[in-house]
């Protein structure tokens, strides 16, 4: 097939390692809904690598969706990537996707989006999430919502640590507090970057404890208790790796 004018061959060089690793968790052959698609590079990557035969790329804002459309046309994938302006999952029918992918959002926002569309959530086969915050709460939410977490990955990029995970319908025994905090699969598989994250977290926590050492308020005392608990959990995870 003849390429369109200005069409590039691959999106790989435009996609961050974080998003490549997130995309790798999508089960091959699953139609995928890319929620908050932004520039649609992830959607394009999924199609180009034969992971998803069809992607519905959605964003709440017109600007990012316009850029996404330009990129989809640029790579000649108009037939395989459908673009929709959508507030969360509002524009997605329950039977239209096997995978819901949500990446680059805060954990609370991802949780709100999924909670607001229970029928759609019940109809999909898997969730692939890359929350930017409050991972322990996201993991607990998935268990409460009737999902098993089957895979986790972690990457260090531009001085920050990112975790991505896959969840499918099912039940599993509750995780320990440390597993919710640091990831049962990450620790079981001894993902190398997790140790770096834990060492950095320990250093930061010890620094905060030194700063609070001379404070004499009820609030500071409570904060010190929280930090000592986090330090203990951190040490347990480091020893287990």
Give a structural overview.
The protein is of the alpha/beta class. It has helices spanning 17-23, 41-48, 62-74, 107-115, 118-123, 135-144, 177-182, 184-188, 192-212, 218-240, and strands at residues 32-35, 55-59, 81-85, 99-103, 126-130, 147-157, 160-169. A seven-stranded mixed sheet has the order 3-2-1-4-5-7-6, with helices on both faces. The longest helix has 23 residues, at 218-240. The protein is elongated. The model is unreliable at 1-6 (pLDDT under 50).
Defining traits:
alpha/beta; disordered N terminus; 241 residues; 45% helix; single chain; seven-stranded mixed β-sheet
Radius of gyration: 20 Å
Strand content: 15-25%
Helical region count?
A: 10
Task: Please identify the structural class as seen in this structure.
Answer: alpha/beta
Whole-number average pLDDT?
90
Q: What characterizes the major β-sheet? A: 7 strands, mixed
> What is the succession of H and E elements?
HEHEHEEHHEHEEHHHH
Envelope shape = elongated
Trace the largest sheet across and list its strands.
3-2-1-4-5-7-6
Q: What share of residues is helical?
A: 40-55%
Total strands: the figure is: 7
Query: Are there runs of 5+ residues with pLDDT below 50, and where?
Result: 1-6
**CA(first)-CA(last) distance:** 50 Å
């Amino acid at each position: 097939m003849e390429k369109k004018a200005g069409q590039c061959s691959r999106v790989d060089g435009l996609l961050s390692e974080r998003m490549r690793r997130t995309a790798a968790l999508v089960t091959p052959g699953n139609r995928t809904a890319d929620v908050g698609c932004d520039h649609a590079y992830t959607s394009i990557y999924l199609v180009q690598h034969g992971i998803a035969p069809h992607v519905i790329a959605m964003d709440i804002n017109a600007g990012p969706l316009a850029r996404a459309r330009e990129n989809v046309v640029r790579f000649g994938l108009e037939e395989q990537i459908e673009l929709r302006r959508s507030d969360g999952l509002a524009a997605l029918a329950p039977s239209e996707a096997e995978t819901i992918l949500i990446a680059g959002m805060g954990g609370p926002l991802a949780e709100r989006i999924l909670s607001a569309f229970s029928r759609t959530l019940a109809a999909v086969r898997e969730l692939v999430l890359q929350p930017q915050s409050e991972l322990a709460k996201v993991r607990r939410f998935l268990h409460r919502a009737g999902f098993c977490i089957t895979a986790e990955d972690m990457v260090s990029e531009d001085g920050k640590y990112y975790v991505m995970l896959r969840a499918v319908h099912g039940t599993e025994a509750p995780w320990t507090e440390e597993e919710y905090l640091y990831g049962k699969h990450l620790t079981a598989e001894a993902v190398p970057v997790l140790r770096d994250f834990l060492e950095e977290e320990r250093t930061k926590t010890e620094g905060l404890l030194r700063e609070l050492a001379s404070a004499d308020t009820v609030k500071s005392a409570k904060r010190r208790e929280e930090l000592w608990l986090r330090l203990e959990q951190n040490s347990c995870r480091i020893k287990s790796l």
